[in-house]
Sequence to fold (374 residues):
Amino acid sequence: MRIVHVSDTHLGFFEYARIDPETGLNQREQDFYRAWRKFIDEVLADPPDLVIHAGDLFHTPRPTNRAIRVASEAIKQVGEAGVPFVLISGNHSTPRIRATGSIFETLALFPNVHVAYLGQYRRIRVGGIAVHCVPHTFDEKEWQSAFDAIELDPGAEANILVTHGTWRGQKDFAMGEFGEQGIPDVEEKRGLRFDYVALGHYHRRVDIAEHISYSGSTERTGFGQADVTPGYLVVKLGERVERTHVPVPARPMKVLTLELLPSSGPAEVLSGLERLAAQVPEGAIVDLRLVGISKETYLKLDFRELDALWSHCLAVEKTVLLAAPGQEQLEHAEIGSLTEEFQRFLRRANLSDVDRERLSRLGLELLSQQMQEE
Fold:
């Protein structure tokens, strides 16, 4: 029995004001569609017995029409190829208000597609496989009730649990996001034994136990994942569980630091940055930190000359940490584009009562639209 386990595709994610001249799409948004399409093509080329998506199909609970079309077209293809597709909603794709409704209602209309999104446990029988789904819920009480409702199917060839959240054991696999929910160990607490547990939310591929895994994401959403190899899992169930991680090509991310002496002058800074820039592949996204530079040298830098070193990159985020006294930190020393400055403002602003993701998406859409019109 062969299963494909994927998660955290985050369709609709976009960042930086970089537009693909051929498609007119934000390049980061297009990266996530490309990774998704690569995954779907590989599933169709070698169809498994079942595909499981463990949450966060979309990056927001109200995805754009384009994100919906890209997702729907692919899911429909898999279903029509006779491959059962089970999807649950994650924290990014679950609306905060139940009355808002969910795009998963539409996805459920496709053949061989089964969804769980109503904030409650659902058991789905697919051939000889019983899939126990616990999607993201609206509150902790519903979350606990969903796990309490799980009952194994004794007549199934395999019982699989799929859920989205942070596994809490010796290490918490959290993303540091609002609304994360901790996954209880129902096998230990209730004596249940699953043939496989498919986890979503954590963007790294991790094996919790011999039959419990995070598949990781199919693209990187931040510099904390710069060292991650995006992809999905192919799982074979038998006397033991065999898992193979299948990488998905993704845009490279680099976190670079240039350590300087207080006596370093502009020439040393330029030389160091030239050396670092030469190590960065075409189209990469870079988090660049200049540490220990003196204020005098910093003021003498020609940022146009420095920026030219990184012209082959999609985006470069800069942080400058001045030498003592005070160790003053200057984030993003140069003034970037209007959209870059808007994103920087959002990262610094105290917006505890505001849907930051929605504000970012709407703001960037309006700015991008305005730039295209101009």
